[in-house]
Amino acid sequence: MSPVNNDVPVTGKGLIVSFGEMLIDFVPTVSGVSLAEAPGFLKAPGGAPANVAIAVSRLGGKAAFVGKLGDDEFGHMLAGILKENGVSAEGINFDQGARTALAFVTLRADGEREFMFYRNPSADMLLRPEELNLELIRSANVFHYGSISLIVEPCRSAHLKAIEVAKDAGALLSYDPNLRLPLWPSPEEAREQILSIWDKAEVIKVSDVELEFLTGSDKIDDASALSLWHDNLKLLLVTLGEKGCRYYTKHFHGEVKAFHVNTVDTTGAGDSFVGALLGKIVDDRSILEDEARLRQVLKFANACGAITTTKKGAIPALPNEPEVLALIKGA
Ligand code: ADP
């Protein structure tokens, strides 16, 4: 049994502001069917940046979400879910004209994932720079974001402005591109836009699939990861699903193994991992320069990711701290 290093509190004062989309995934009530065959759908609130904010809060940290929802039943339902989970909703705007984004998602029996998005446009795409709650963004110790908010204007300009405001106010910038190819006009455009804000972030997390996509290499190795390195970066993470994660800093790099669990649905594992990591470093950035402590934090983040795969859906599966410590202790 490995020792549990719990000297990095997650309950500090630092605020993590997560920027981007929150939407509803509609998932079939039965598994292994196409969207057309599905007899019915269940609502599963999602959107990676919103999941990250809830992950932070569930672990005892302080989080806010910034984004736009439709001024409709679903938009208010989602804002309510954030609040119920202790996430500040001060940065949420409601669009009078456009609906909350919906995504119908299924994993067919042949293993192919099918998506159908209702974003024509959806409210999240219509967030304007002048609507941003700048006071909230300036109070962030960590500002986290993805790439879906880069796809179209005016949200793209709002995203770029929010990054600048957070950076000028001294926030640590954290980026998880969260590639969703079907939402982009082309793979080339996705790669170009995702990389267009690459050198701003100080913490970047990519999955193995994203690493391959962004580098154009079919190898998941140190050389391909390090080809994504830039001078402002403090920590690059590559998550490897059931194989854990790799980390790279200016001075050291290595791998932290995953936990063995009974996986049911991997949705949200990466968001849970990111929320856990940010919750640990928000009050103590020196962890990023201390390999032993960083490895403890990544072990904790791996445990969070693993637990999130043991239940259906993302938000219901995000763990609290006692659950994480129990998994670490029992491993
Ligand atoms: P993403 O959701 O962004 O694709 P991953 O699937 O790599 O990210 O998951 C993030 C982290 O969650 C991994 O680094 C790992 O620690 C944990 N994790 C994911 N899937 C599993 C699994 N099947 N078993 C155990 N841990 C997992």
UniProtKB/TrEMBL annotation:
Residues 15-319 form the Carbohydrate kinase PfkB domain. Transmembrane segments: none annotated. Keywords: ATP-binding, Carbohydrate metabolism, Kinase, Nucleotide-binding, Transferase. Pfam families: PfkB (PF00294). One of its GO terms (biological process) is fructose metabolic process. Pathway: Glycan biosynthesis; starch biosynthesis. One of its GO terms (molecular function) is ATP binding. Belongs to the carbohydrate kinase PfkB family. It comes from Ziziphus jujuba (Chinese jujube). It catalyses: D-fructose + ATP = D-fructose 6-phosphate + ADP + H(+). Its EC number is 2.7.1.4. This is fructokinase. One of its GO terms (cellular component) is cytosol. It is an enzyme of class 2 (transferase). May play an important role in maintaining the flux of carbon towards starch formation.
